[in-house]
């Protein structure tokens, strides 16, 4: 069996967002419940459940909002709910219209969207979720990022699988075990886990699913197993910023850089600097975690240093040499959005990076993170150079496409959509400028109305599941029906017009102009026509 280090955020319709560690004094004592019994009481408008080793809170929303095992918080803080419509980050909804307590240890939360039945036992919680709508929804339970290890049993693998601290997704789960300071939470009934953090349950329309959460102190064998594969093998672990990472600027002149990590050694002071002066980095004494947001001028590359001191002496330090505040784009579509160009290119400015979903690095071709594993050239190096030269800031791309795919292949819930959406969730809210979409060559037989409806749904569901609104810039190409569908998307304000890449013919295409893919000069011209659309559009955004 292998252990996860940290599995790297919400999707569709119904979301549990139970975020990173909240340090609150316990609302009740665990000793109020003996090991062989559970209690459920209503206090200040919310229901509080206690078992032999756990405590939980169900607020008036009907969604579990806190779960502790021992004194450790495994899930916590307010819930964001998106009931199948465009999500507004400031919106707070209720999943239920009423909460009843038909039995001493049972809560039933009922509403138009769903019915959730909680049964509290001495060792955990059984949740029965019924979808009362005509659309499938997903329920997400977000784990405290301070947990120390996650063990997954994947049905597809038939064994426990291991993850690095990266944005990895694992499906077909049998069980997930979460370890935190000697306590263990076992989760069953879920469909997938993202980034060692979000556990997902899919509920089809009109159907019911069951999930269980079992709490107990870890056995000596389990504690030893997690200790053997420590999540944090070094005393100082920096999770952000990463080398070559670009943070999306908020205005023309500045942006926010996250400095986040963990130090498990002995120290009396943590510090960071991104310039000449050192600043204190608060360290949580319980979780050993640190996290600050630093406002910095747009530009880069900056050098970020983090160090731990004890009695005035440096006991641990890390240096991140390339940190940028600039422009970030997600890219999707088919082969001309991935690595099918005739020659590999590389940026000349030194200011262009790429994000694979695991690491950031210079954007030399082939671009990482594509779904089709293509290995040739792309237009991102020249496009990034042009944007970096014009705006004077670093530029980054997260490329997710797959060659020879029709728009139908990108339907929400399908493998390609999930692949792209995972990158969007990894980056997070307000962490990129726009999606660049280059697709349509494979839709020669798709009617205009169908293409319009499918791409409109993809765009709207991508925004909905991400929990915030971001622009899509859609390249113009394809047969007349596809082109007219895109014109309608532009006219309806659903997408912004990208370049007309059908105009790139002759020497711009490989095989003497006969290939659908671009030649070396074609890749450069492809980058140029994208820049001609993005630059004036972005200048308006920055006004």
Question: Nutshell version of this structure?
Answer:
17% of the residues lie in helices and 36% in strands. The chain is an alpha+beta fold and 543 residues long.
Describe what you observe in this structure.
The protein has 543 residues and is an alpha+beta fold. Helices cover 17% and strands 36% of the residues. It contains 7 helices and 32 strands. The protein has helices spanning 220-228, 380-391, 415-427, 448-466, 480-491, 510-513, 520-541, and strands at 39-43, 46-50, 54-58, 66-69, 72-75, 98-103, 106-110, 114-121, 124-131, 137-142, 149-154, 159-161, 169-171, 173-180, 183-188, 192-194, 198-203, 208-217, 236-240, 245-248, 254-263, 269-273, 279-280, 289-297, 299-310, 313-333, 352-355, 360-362, 395-399, 434-438, 472-476, 496-500. The strands form 5 sheets. Strands 20, 22, 23, 25, 26, 27, 28, 29, 30, 31 and 32 form an 11-stranded mixed sheet that branches. β27 (352-355) and β28 (360-362) form a beta hairpin. The longest helix is centred in the C-terminal third of the chain and has 22 residues, at 520-541. The chain is globular. The relative contact order is 0.10. Mean pLDDT is 84; it is low at 1-34, 77-93 and 155-167.
């Amino acid at each position: 069996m292998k252990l996860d280090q940290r599995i790297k955020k919400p999707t569709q319709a119904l979301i549990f967002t139970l975020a990173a560690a909240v340090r609150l004094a316990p609302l009740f004592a665990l000793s109020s419940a003996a090991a062989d019994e559970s209690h459920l009481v209503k206090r200040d408008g919310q229901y509080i459940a206690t078992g032999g080793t756990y405590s939980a809170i169900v607020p008036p929303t009907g969604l579990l909002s806190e779960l502790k095992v021992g004194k450790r918080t495994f899930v916590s803080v307010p819930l964001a709910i998106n009931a199948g419509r465009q999500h507004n980050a400031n919106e707070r909804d209720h999943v239920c219209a009423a909460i009843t307590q038909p039995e001493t240890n049972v809560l039933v939360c009922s509403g138009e969207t769903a019915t959730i039945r909680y049964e509290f036992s001495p060792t955990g919680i059984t949740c029965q979720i019924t979808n009362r709508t005509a659309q499938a929804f997903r329920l997400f339970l977000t784990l405290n990022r301070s947990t120390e290890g996650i063990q997954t049993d994947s049905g597809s693998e038939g064994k426990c699988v291991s993850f690095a601290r990266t944005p990895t997704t694992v499906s077909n789960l049998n069980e997930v075990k979460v370890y935190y300071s000697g306590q263990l939470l076992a989760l069953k009934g879920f469909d997938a886990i993202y980034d060692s953090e979000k556990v997902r349950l899919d509920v089809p329309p009109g159907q019911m699913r069951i999930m269980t959460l079992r709490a107990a102190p870890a056995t000596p064998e389990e504690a030893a197993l997690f200790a053997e594969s420590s999540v944090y093998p070094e005393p100082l672990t920096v999770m952000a910023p990463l080398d070559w990472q670009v943070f999306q600027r908020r205005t023309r002149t500045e942006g926010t850089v996250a400095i986040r990590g963990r130090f498990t050694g002995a120290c009396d002071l943590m510090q960071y600097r991104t310039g000449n002066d050192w600043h204190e980095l608060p360290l949580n004494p319980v979780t050993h975690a640190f996290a600050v947001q630093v406002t910095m001028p747009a530009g880069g590359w900056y050098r970020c240093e983090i160090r731990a001191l004890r009695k005035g002496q440096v006991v641990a330090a890390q240096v991140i040499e390339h940190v940028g505040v600039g422009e970030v784009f997600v890219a999707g579509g088919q082969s001309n959005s991935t690595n099918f160009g005739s020659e590999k290119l590389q940026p000349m400015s030194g200011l262009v990076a790429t994000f694979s979903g695991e690491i950031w690095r210079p954007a030399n071709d082939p671009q990482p993170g594509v779904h089709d594993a293509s290995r040739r050239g792309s237009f991102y190096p020249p496009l990034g150079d042009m944007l970096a030269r014009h705006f004077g800031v670093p530029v980054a791309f997260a490329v997710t496409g797959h060659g020879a795919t029709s728009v139908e292949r990108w339907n929400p819930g399908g493998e390609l959509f999930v692949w792209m959406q995972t990158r969007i969730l990894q980056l997070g809210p307000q962490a990129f400028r726009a999606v660049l979409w280059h697709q349509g060559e494979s839709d020669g037989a798709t009617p205009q109305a169908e293409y319009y409806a499918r791409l409109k749904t993809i765009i709207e569901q991508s925004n909905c599941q991400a929990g915030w609104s971001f622009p899509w810039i859609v390249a113009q190409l394809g047969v007349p029906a596809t082109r007219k569908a895109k014109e309608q998307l532009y006219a309806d304000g659903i997408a912004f017009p990208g370049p007309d890449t059908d105009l790139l013919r002759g020497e711009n295409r490989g095989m003497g102009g006969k290939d659908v893919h671009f030649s070396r000069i074609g890749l450069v011209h492809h980058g140029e026509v994208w820049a001609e659309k993005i630059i004036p559009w972005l200048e308006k955004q920055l006004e």
